Amino acid sequence: MADDNATTRRAFLTHALRGLGLLAVGGAAAALAQAGAAGTVWQIDPDACIQCGQCATHCVLRPSAVKCVHTHALCGYCKLCFGYFESESIPDELTGTGAEFQRCPTDAIRRRFVEDPFYEYVIDESRCIGCGTCVKGCAAYGNGSLFLQIRHDRCVHCNACAIAAACPARAIRRVPADRPYLLKQTRAPA
Ligand code: SF4
Ligand code: SF4
Ligand code: SF4
After folding, report:
1. Range of the domain at 159
2. Which residue puts its alpha carbon closest to atom 8 of ligand 3?
3. What's the pLDDT tens digit per position in 4-42?
4. For the chain, what is the domain count?
5. Cα of 59 to ligand 2 centre, how many Å?
6. Which of 83, 86, 157, 183 could potentially form a cystine with 134 if both were Cys, beta carbons 3.0 to 4.6 Å apart?
7. Does a structural domain hold residue 82?
């Protein structure tokens, strides 16, 4: 049974790493096609971001081009995920996963049972508005596996990014268009 569990978790990690690879390659192709003359695009440094909420409100797009990204390889697959659950509303014994227990205001996080006591959390980008609320919860109580990134299949590559101008942490900077993501796993342009 222990071997089965290890195999299942290994399969999930493999899946997660493959997903990150696709994110980088697919994003790179889109970004390269639209990058400015300097060959750079805007991106959020997840280590500098303080999840102030302005990524949701200051992008020229509605919803924002900023989305939550999940590095599954860093995730603890926690049953009580504080990126998913509102910490103040969790009773001693978890009684449900209804909206009243959830942190995300748009129901953009999918929670799926893996094996006791592990759960997988997947972001539905079509619902995510880049508010960073889940990121703040995961950073405060969890592994920090959730973070914000400008998605280059949505960003229109403004000459001056309106979010970068407003960002109180100066967390948004230009990165090479052929490595357009700053993934937590690598801490370098991917
Ligand atoms: S809490 Fe905000 S950043 Fe996180 S998934 Fe929901 S909308 Fe996206
Ligand atoms: S460059 Fe423009 S579209 Fe892209 S994240 Fe910034 S404000 Fe939004
Ligand atoms: S504006 Fe800056 S600090 Fe605020 S959520 Fe966006 S990247 Fe993070």
Report:
1. 2-74+128-176
2. 49
3. 444 444 444 444 444 444 454 455 565 556 665 479 999
4. 1
5. 5
6. 83
7. no
